[in-house]
Amino acid sequence: MEFVGFLVDFVLHVDKYLEGFIQGYGAWVYALLFMIIFVETGVVVMPFLPGDSLLFVVGAMCGVGLMQYPLSVGLLFAAAVLGNQSNYAIGRFIGPKVFQWEDSRFFNKKAFDQTHAFYERYGGITIVAARFMPFLRTFAPFVAGVARMTRSRFLFFDVLGGGLWVGGIITVGYFFGNFPWVKAHLDKIIWAMIFIPGLIILFGAWRARRNAAA
Which of 72, 137, 170, 185 sits between 20 and 30 A of 61, alpha carbons compared? Predict the structure, then answer.
């Protein structure tokens, strides 16, 4: 419970934790941020680490000169892309090991083929859009690996999505993160960054079930 409380406090006050780490350890902050982004996107069991809010705060730190903008964007872009590649590789490796590629209580070959076809046709936009969805961005590359989405196709959309996600949110934080109103309501903004995409996912799932039932 103490860890959960710390994690919630870290997510909601990531700006204070990050500023304190910069003051205490200087350039080591880049290694810490690389590790957080890589693990959040690269390990399917770690979807609860901060992503959007962390990038936004990094941009704000760059805006006041505590961090370097080009280095932050480049390094965290690499972490995001490599994390997704790791997650994809895990899914691609584990999928056949767990399911053994035969019909069983755990695996349905027809369902797998349909999932593979979906990712080949629509998976690109899924990989890109999932970057901006907490939790979903951790699972999307893993599922793409399990579904055997073509590696070159996955790489293209991984790079595209990673660039838009990291570059876009850090840039927004750089220009707007230090406005007095934003700093005063940062905790509410972080909650919004978590819950609004979640509501979109739930609404989309509800519509999909409704259409399937119809």
Answer: 137
Q: State the SS3 of 108-135.
A: CHHHHHHHHHHHHHHHHHHHHHHCCCCC
Taking only the tens place, the pLDDT of each residue in 148-168 is 888 898 999 999 999 999 999
pTM of the full structure: 0.79
| Rounded Cα gap, residues 193 and 137, in angstroms | 14
> What backbone phi and psi angles, to 5 degrees, belong to 144?
-60, -40
Determine the length of the chain.
Answer: 214
Rounded to an integer, what distance in angstroms lies between the CA atom of residue 115 and that of residue 23?
48
Q: Kindly list the domain boundaries of the chain, sorted by start residue.
A: 2-213
- Quote the CA–CA distance of 162 and 77 in Å, as a whole number: 6
Quick one: tokens of 198? 């979640």
